[in-house]
Inverse folding.
């Protein structure tokens, strides 16, 4: 793919002149994301997120009801050992509030375990209630690794995406901000856990966004 080759060539060149990007291999579902937080001064609070579904639990009474409303799980299943017919269980789903100060009934971010309903990797689904119904505003083939406090009621989120190109693994950490009823792409901040320099972030982000769209990692 020409666009993939373009970004790979760009990164390779930067490695030669300054060691900007260092590529390392990662494991998929069980990887622990280790990051050095280097946030812009405008960010007042950062929450890093790591999810182990085997240790996950529901903390609110609404969570199971919301899953049933979405019809994303099988409410008749009493055991949580089937990915093809997932029970409405924290073993398969993790909730995050969408809006600060609002209940999950008004909107939420839903992380879905890999393998659930036949989907091979983790997914991140965004829902907001409108006219009494839950509306799916965003779908990411990736998972949330960070929330950043904003002055409005919607925090920014950082999503970790994965792709494989010519037997090489690539991980993109991308920032999204709420705008006009959905999360919009802002920039790519890291590739394979290496920060992108400020003077390069616009051009690299443009190429990464094209890859995410072409590979249907956002839809």
């Amino acid at each position: 793919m020409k666009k993939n080759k373009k970004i790979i060539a760009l990164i390779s060149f930067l490695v030669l002149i300054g060691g900007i990007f260092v590529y390392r291999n990662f494991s998929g579902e069980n990887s622990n994301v280790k990051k050095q937080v280097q946030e812009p001064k405008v960010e007042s609070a950062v929450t890093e997120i790591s999810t182990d579904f085997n240790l996950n639990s529901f903390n609110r009474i609404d969570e199971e009801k919301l899953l049933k409303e979405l019809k994303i799980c099988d409410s008749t299943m009493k055991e949580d050992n089937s990915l093809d017919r997932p029970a409405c269980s924290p073993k398969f789903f993790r909730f995050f509030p969408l809006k600060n100060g609002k209940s999950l009934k008004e909107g939420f971010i839903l992380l879905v375990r890999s393998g659930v309903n036949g989907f091979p990797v983790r997914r991140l689904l965004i829902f907001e209630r409108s006219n009494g119904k839950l509306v799916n505003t965003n779908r990411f083939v990736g998972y949330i690794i960070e929330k950043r406090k904003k002055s409005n009621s919607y925090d920014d989120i950082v999503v970790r995406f994965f792709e494989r190109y010519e037997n090489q693994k690539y991980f993109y950490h991308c920032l999204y901000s709420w705008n006009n009823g959905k999360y919009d792409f802002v920039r790519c901040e890291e590739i394979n856990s290496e920060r992108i320099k400020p003077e390069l972030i616009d051009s690299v982000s443009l190429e990464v966004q094209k890859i995410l769209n072409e590979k249907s990692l956002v839809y």
Remarks:
- Confidence is low (pLDDT under 50) at residues 12-43.
- Residues 2-18 form the longest helix (17 residues).
- The helical segments are 2-18, 63-70, 201-214.
